[in-house]
Amino acid sequence: MHHVSDGVEAMDFLRKKGKYAKVPRPDLILLDLNLPRKDFREVLAEIKKDEDLMRIPVVILTISKAEEDILKTYNLHANCYVTKPLNLDQFIKVVKSIEDFWLTIVKLPPNGTK
After folding, report:
1. CB–CB of 72/45 below 8 Å?
2. Which helix (H) or strand (E) holds 71?
3. Rounded distance, CA 113 to CA 23, Å?
4. What are the residue ranges spanned by the domains of the chain?
5. Could you give phi then psi for residue 21, rounded to 5 degrees?
6. CA 31 to CA 65: how far, in whole Å?
7. The pLDDT of residue 82
8. Is residue 112 scored above 60 in pLDDT?
9. Number of other CB atoms surrounding residue 74 within 10 Å
10. How confident is the model at residue 114 (pLDDT cuts 50, 70, 90)?
11. Is the domain covering 7-105 a CATH 3.40.50.2300 domain?
């Protein structure tokens, strides 16, 4: 698992720019709604418009339960929307469930295939 601190770094990571030149291509992206520097809408839209990135599943993982946020993310082609539990143990269970579903149960296209 890799972590970046804002939307600009997220896109640099995904496009393997600068210090991220040698990172592996992710199989799954967990994206928070509250990204600094470049917000989630911009990041999600860029991912889904990029032929090299568009097939990577994007899971929105956030504390927001707002219907408006849910609609925005699905309108930008997020693959799913998950509300973070506030309890750390529950949060870990949710992340493991997401990982199990997307990386074990779901059949994804080969990594790097357009």
Report:
1. no
2. helix 67-75
3. 17
4. 7-105
5. -55, -30
6. 15
7. 92
8. no
9. 13
10. low
11. yes
